[in-house]
Amino acid sequence: MLELKDIYKSFNKGTVDEVQVLKGINLRIEDGDFVTLVGNNGAGKTTLLNIISGSQFPDEGRVIIDGVDVTTMPEYKRGRMIGRVFQDPLMGTAPSMTINENMALALKRGKKLGLKWGISSNTRNIIRDNLKILSLGLEERGKASVGLLSGGQRQAITLLMATMARPRLLLLDEHTAALDPRAASLISELTERIVGETGVAAIMVTHNLSSALSMGNRLIMMENGRISLDAKGEEKKRLTHEELLAMYA
Ligand SMILES: Nc1ncnc2c1ncn2[C@@H]1O[C@H](COP(=O)(O)OP(=O)(O)OP(=O)(O)O)[C@@H](O)[C@H]1O
Fold it and tell me: Which residue range or ranges hold the ABC transporter domain (predicted)?
């Protein structure tokens, strides 16, 4: 469903600060793949997600989603195909808006917003049913401002919002890294549940090697702008923490 063909990306080209971040990435992600993506600081993981989401464009190479070449398609136009959750729980939601309002906006992702802005009772029911999935009791707090929620609750809502409009691909950029251990484990569980139930293809960047090994069906390591390991299925299952750690350059 996602194909990256010979992706190159540099920053500050032609200056002394030039840095070549992606050096010929070729990758094919199939429907239902749940990829954990690891690698050193600066290996190019976030840049790769930026290029997939359209927040940055590659210097060379093609990005293809479901057979459509989206290489130069702006990010907002890919919004319906791609959901994304960032490390900072403050980034995915609007704090002064209520839970219901945030979720209603997420449901409309990629669709035209009309001049009238209101939440129908049907939408309210869909939101309620979705919030129940979280098992956090938030379905009773639809009218509460998102800004009043904890980081973990907020990230849970962001995750739900990123997947509610049924994207084809979910990008998770260290989305549990800023949470306390209990909240991080809740969000990891939720991620597995939501990815499993919706069948959305997912790429999850993490520095947590235990999560990288235990979650998903495929593990990719990036090193200095290239893919240095792509372990799938049984190969991934056999991989140990020590082996993975030893692969870090
Ligand atoms: N907009 C930019 N301008 C200049 N350099 C950039 C820019 N974005 C990223 N870089 C550089 O590109 C390199 C790769 O960054 P990137 O954030 O993709 O790595 P990463 O693997 O996600 O790292 P981390 O694990 O630390 O998040 C780094 O050297 C970074 O400084």
Answer: 2-249
Radius of gyration of the chain (CA): 19
- Ligand 1 centroid–CA 109 distance in Å is 28
120 within domain boundaries: yes
pTM: 0.92
Number of domains, the chain:
1
Q: Which residue has the tokens 């009218």?
A: 143
Structure tokens at 47: 């840049």
Ligand 1 atom 1 nearest Cα: 11
Give which of 101, 97, 93, 107 is closest to 157, Cα–Cα. 93
**Is 47's C-beta closer than 6 angstroms to any atom of ligand 1?**
yes
Helices H, strands E: what count in the chain?
A: 9, 10
- Domain of 102, in residue numbers: 31-58+70-248
Place of tokens 């990719």: 220
What is the DSSP secondary structure assignment for residue 103, as one 8-state letter?
A: H
CA 166 to centroid of ligand 1, rounded, Å: 29
Question: Which residue owns the Cα nearest ligand 1 atom 17?
Answer: 46
Q: Do the domain assignments include residue 126? A: yes
CATH number at residue 199: 3.40.50.300
In this predicted model, what pLDDT tens digit does every residue of 59-93 receive, in sequence order? 999 999 999 999 999 998 998 899 999 999 888 89
Is residue 11 within 6 Å of ligand 1 at its C-beta?
Answer: yes
